[in-house]
């Protein structure tokens, strides 16, 4: 059984003190950084984009996992690679040719993940599982940090992990949205191997303590 990996979501960091906040979670034991990129179309919000990813790349040795909440990610795969991302997560709900986007991510030498929204059945991911490096179950509607965890995500994680095991695949499943020390054990028990948390980590006095709690 692999150890749980913890990815702080930068959306909850202090953008005026980004390097400082990143240093706190890096020293605090984070396994990777989760960067929420929003286009104002796929989700009703705009966060940050390529220049911020490039700046973050200069401040940390952590792997950068960009969660692309973009309706049309294909033209941006190369630019995100250039900016320093290590892995890209796209959404199964986008109105693009998913296979083409996943192929492009791989062709750029990046790891690819596929995310599924709360209202989308998790089985929509199944045809793509053999083309992925990770799957991400959303436990909030994407677009905003600081929302309440939706426990229905746990059933989706269980179903997804069962399907992955049934097919003999080795594919880590992550959970994103409203994760905190009070629900992390349930996430891990359901089978989540990567926990993304924004406000719980960056809102804490001692991020190292929260990261350790989340890891269990
Ligand atoms: C939501 C994002 C999440 C979110 C996590 O659109 O994908 O990564 O920012 O933040 P918390 O942990 O505050 O829900
Ligand atoms: Zn995210």
Describe this structure in words.
With 216 residues, the protein is an alpha/beta fold. Helix content is 35%, strand content 19%. The protein contains 8 helices and 8 strands. It has helices at 18-27, 50-59, 77-83, 98-107, 152-166, 181-190, 199-202, 207-215; strands spanning 5-8, 32-38, 63-69, 87-91, 111-116, 134-138, 173-176, 194-197. The protein has an 8-stranded parallel sheet with strand order 1-8-7-6-5-4-3-2. Helix 2 (50-59) links the parallel strand 2 (32-38) and strand 3 (63-69). The longest helix has 15 residues, at 152-166. The radius of gyration is 16 Å and the shape is globular. The chain starts with a strand and ends with a helix. It binds D-xylitol-5-phosphate and zinc ion. D-xylitol-5-phosphate binds at residues 9, 11-12, 34, 36, 67, 140, 142-147, 176-179, 196-200.
């Amino acid at each position: 059984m692999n150890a749980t990996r913890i990815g702080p979501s930068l959306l909850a960091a202090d953008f005026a003190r980004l390097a400082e906040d990143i240093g706190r979670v890096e020293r605090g034991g984070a396994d990777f950084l989760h960067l929420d990129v929003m286009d104002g179309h796929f989700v009703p919000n705009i966060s940050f984009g390529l220049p911020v990813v490039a700046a973050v790349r200069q401040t940390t040795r952590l792997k950068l996992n960009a969660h692309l909440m973009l309706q049309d990610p294909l033209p941006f795969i190369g630019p995100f690679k250039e900016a320093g991302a290590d892995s890209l997560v796209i959404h199964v709900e986008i109105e693009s040719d998913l296979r083409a986007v996943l192929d492009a991510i791989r062709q750029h030498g990046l790891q690819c993940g596929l995310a599924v929204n709360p209202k989308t059945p998790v089985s929509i991911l199944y045809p793509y599982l053999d083309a992925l490096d990770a799957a991400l179950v959303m436990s909030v509607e994407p677009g905003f940090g600081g929302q309440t965890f939706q426990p229905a995500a746990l059933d989706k994680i269980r179903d997804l992990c069962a399907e992955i095991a049934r097919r003999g695949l080795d594919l880590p499943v992550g959970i994103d949205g409203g994760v905190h020390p009070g629900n992390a054990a349930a996430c891990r028990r359901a089978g989540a191997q990567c926990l993304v948390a924004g406000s719980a980590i960056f809102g804490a006095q001692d991020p190292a303590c929260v990261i350790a709690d989340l890891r269990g």
